[in-house]
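Supplementary Methods S3. Input chains for the assembly prediction are listed below.
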Amino acid sequence: MRDGKVKIAVVAPASRLEPETAERVQEIARTAYPGVKLVFHPQCFLASGHFAGDDETRMNAFVEVANDEAFSAVWFARGGYGSGRIAEGVLERLHAAARRKLYLGYSDGAFLLAGLYRHGYHAAHGPIPHDVRRVGGEDAVKRALSFLADRDAAALEPTIDGKHPTAAFNMTILSHLIGTRLMPDLSNHVLMLEEVSEHLYAIDRSLVHIVSDETLRRAAGVRLGRCSDIPSNDPEFGQTPEQIMQHWCTVAGIPYLGRGDIGHDAENKIVPFGFLKDMPG
Amino acid sequence: MRDGKVKIAVVAPASRLEPETAERVQEIARTAYPGVKLVFHPQCFLASGHFAGDDETRMNAFVEVANDEAFSAVWFARGGYGSGRIAEGVLERLHAAARRKLYLGYSDGAFLLAGLYRHGYHAAHGPIPHDVRRVGGEDAVKRALSFLADRDAAALEPTIDGKHPTAAFNMTILSHLIGTRLMPDLSNHVLMLEEVSEHLYAIDRSLVHIVSDETLRRAAGVRLGRCSDIPSNDPEFGQTPEQIMQHWCTVAGIPYLGRGDIGHDAENKIVPFGFLKDMPG
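Predicted structure tokens for the full assembly:
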């Protein structure tokens, strides 16, 4: 590291970050993690319709920092929507330096995390800069920084025991990955799934799709993260998210392992794609 | 046909039908199509949480009428959600009589229509009894009946010219079919896609998934049906549904053929899965 610090790049492969949000996260990093240098790529603040710049601009920024030896991690500024539009293009342009760093994000960012993991890069599910806006969001950001800087095991989802590789996804995103060239082989993994702002019938529909996938049927087991902000179902769906999950795990012959400590909230924990011991740094 | 009439069975593989809705449709059939005998299976009116009866009950009703030689068609009472939960189970239990009839539905019903078509049964996208509740819905029901009873070509989507096989889907449903054992080979087909009540970013996300599928990339072309009741996007998405569709067709090398006359509305036209000339009756 050129200045003795752990340098972490922040880019926005999907939706745009507000500059004030970046400043709040910088302040936390300066105060709590003085050994970390956070570099927000200016692309984070661009706007092109729904996105933080058009596809080419977002792709260029991601490839630039991923291929830069100076950065030990690439942290996704925010989810929202858009990383699936650039994931294949990004993967075609990564060099060797991109293999020696960690990629951290979640939600929509899992389009990229999945593709990166499939191709042998180091990816993890966990809090992102935009989470600072949540109630308690400062803790989420500190948790992410403690993992990015020190691989602090306290930041990990607490059921992770190193016996199986792990992966974590938003259910809707995983459903949209099925059959694509971004989908990793998750057989033998403990798979953690969370959801936000989807009706119970849509959660059910995503899970039907997910458990239909042959490699997902070979998962070591599934844990259910939090399903938050569920709109009311008309009529009453008649099952809780956990009952829905247990039903489809039984149908598919996948062990249901209980709850996982992930979700679209400030409590969201780190879940490595694969094994923690294989992570660089 | 035992009483000289065209007998059509109505079952509800997904959401429940109100008895009054069935009565309105019966009245239209009696008046406008006296040669048709519509038989609403009592299962249509059952309720089990979100569904018109539990999975086993809906499956049994579907299989019963599909395997009944007396019926020339099975008409799906309603979409909503639930046919994907029973489609594989239904397909395992169909007999030869099930091959000599037509299956008509759309929206969520396409989980079944897709699986039926994949396995060589005769399926078509088109209006359903529940559509009678729409403004102008009586016309939608008459259009479906004219096709069910007489294969009236006036009911067909008007661009269908018999040169290519066709298929029609709600985008969200097609996205959820990708990678499953229900997904038919749609290469060389003209594929028509419509959507309802989804954000523009979700339409974009479904289309990214759809055009990633190898057999869909070999479609003869794509037509865009209506995208209705789109919630407002924050921020402005910056593209119309047609611009989104054209973009992804270009990326995937699929010819974009213009608009198609389908959607979640009373104007929704009939689109055979495959060729009209191959339909029974």
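Chain A touches chain B at residues 16, 47-50, 80-81, 84-85, 175-176, 178-181, 200-201, 204-206, 208-209, 212-213, 233, 235-239 (CB under 8 Å). Chain A is about 35% helix and 15% strand.
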